């Protein structure tokens, strides 16, 4: 059973999340923290698999807390859970080391789906957050999207179309009426045929018209230059920020 910790100044939200997590049968909440200082002290010894955190804390230290914890908890995924979905906050949080970003209007079953996504190597983003980030990466250029490559099968094109809509993995299987195993097979085929290593790279190449290119696409827009220096995490920020995984 995977361990989860929560950092949120609202005890009601913390309690609701704990109850949801403990009732899932897949995850166990090992701690909740109301402030960044106590979270720093406790999490280093606990080393949970996932930390759900509010980046906009009253002490204004939520983001800095994650920035400090991430290099000391390299095997932990940090999932932002907040009401704030403006582009500056989102990109700052992802820069700090977050692996995913959910809005607090997320439904309970979607929260559990996001935890499943994190556990399988994904980076869940709320749909509204994904749209904000994609618009930021597009910048001011109205660049037409690349057509789907002719080498893809009909089903692979359907999977690719769902990825472009920012669907989570569970949403793709439900929409297409396929099993998780079948989806995994289609994803492996997409990676091989498109010459990529992740769904985020699929998104990057699609929105920059770079399918078939052996080099990583350059990003247009005002935040493009700042992405080049982001590396070393499980996902590069410029990839994660345009991906609504899964």
Task: Give the helices and strands, then pairings.
Elements: E1 2-7, H1 11-23, E2 27-33, H2 36-46, E3 50-53, H3 62-69, E4 77-82, H4 87-96, E5 100-103, H5 108-119, H6 127-138, H7 154-164, H8 169-176, H9 180-194, H10 199-207, H11 224-227, H12 237-240
Parallel strand pairs: 1-2, 1-3, 3-4, 4-5
Helix pairs in contact: 2-3, 3-4, 7-9
Describe the structure.
- The protein has 246 residues and is of the alpha/beta class.
- It has 12 helices and 5 strands.
- It has helices spanning 11-23, 36-46, 62-69, 87-96, 108-119, 127-138, 154-164, 169-176, 180-194, 199-207, 224-227, 237-240, and strands at 2-7, 27-33, 50-53, 77-82, 100-103.
- It has a 5-stranded parallel sheet, sandwiched between helices.
- The protein is globular and about 55 Å long.
Q: Structural class, from helix and strand content? A: alpha/beta
Mean pLDDT: 78
Oligomer: single chain
Strand order of the largest sheet: 2-1-3-4-5
Distance between the termini: 21 Å
Descriptors:
alpha/beta, 246 residues, globular, disordered C terminus, five-stranded parallel beta sheet
What is the compact description of this entry?
The protein contains twelve helices and five strands. The chain has helices at residues 11-23, 36-46, 62-69, 87-96, 108-119, 127-138, 154-164, 169-176, 180-194, 199-207, 224-227, 237-240; strands spanning 2-7, 27-33, 50-53, 77-82, 100-103.
């Amino acid at each position: 059973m995977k361990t989860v910790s929560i950092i949120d100044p609202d005890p009601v939200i913390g309690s609701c999340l704990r109850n949801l997590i403990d009732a899932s049968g897949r995850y166990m909440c090992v701690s909740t923290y109301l402030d960044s200082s106590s979270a720093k002290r406790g999490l280093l010894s606990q080393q949970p698999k996932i930390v759900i955190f509010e980046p906009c804390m009253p002490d204004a230290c939520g983001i800095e807390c994650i920035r400090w914890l991430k290099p000391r908890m390299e095997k932990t995924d940090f999932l932002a859970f907040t009401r704030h979905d403006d582009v500056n906050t989102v990109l700052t949080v992802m820069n700090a080391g977050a692996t995913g970003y959910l809005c607090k209007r997320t439904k309970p079953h979607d929260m559990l789906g996001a935890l499943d996504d994190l556990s399988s190597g994904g980076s869940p983003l709320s749909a509204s957050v994904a749209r904000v980030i994609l618009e930021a990466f597009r910048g001011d250029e109205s660049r037409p999207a690349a057509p789907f490559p002719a080498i893809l099968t009909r089903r692979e094109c359907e999977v690719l179309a769902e990825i472009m809509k920012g669907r989570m993995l569970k949403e793709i299987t439900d929409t297409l009426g396929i099993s998780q195993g079948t989806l995994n097979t289609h994803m492996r085929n997409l990676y091989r045929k498109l010459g990529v290593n992740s769904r985020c790279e699929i998104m990057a190449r699609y929105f920059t018209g770079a399918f078939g290119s052996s080099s990583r696409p350059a990003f247009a827009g005002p935040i493009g230059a700042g992405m080049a220096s982001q590396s070393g995490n499980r996902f590069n920020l410029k990839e994660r920020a345009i991906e609504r995984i899964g």
